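Repro:
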Amino acid sequence: MPDEPTDGRDAAAWSPLDSDGWYATRNATTALRDVLVRAGLEKDFPYLRADLNAFGHGLVELGRVSPATAERLAELLRLALASGFGRDHDDEHEPTITEERKGRA
């Protein structure tokens, strides 16, 4: 059939380890873990996991956290944004926060 894989493998034999999404998600989870450790929040996030959904899209699961932990994380994010930490993307129509502060938007 025209929709069947041509490499001889059944689509049901797909492995997340064969995808770029898995490695990107794993690397993002590792980076987040490192930041949480530096912020002293490693004990507040006992459930931190990299995963892929059924479509191969990466997900980083933080698990349940206490309201105090959520407030502390929100404050750290507010501080990062206030210091000019911008979004990292390729959309040239949406300026980063740093560009907006410098008047380049």
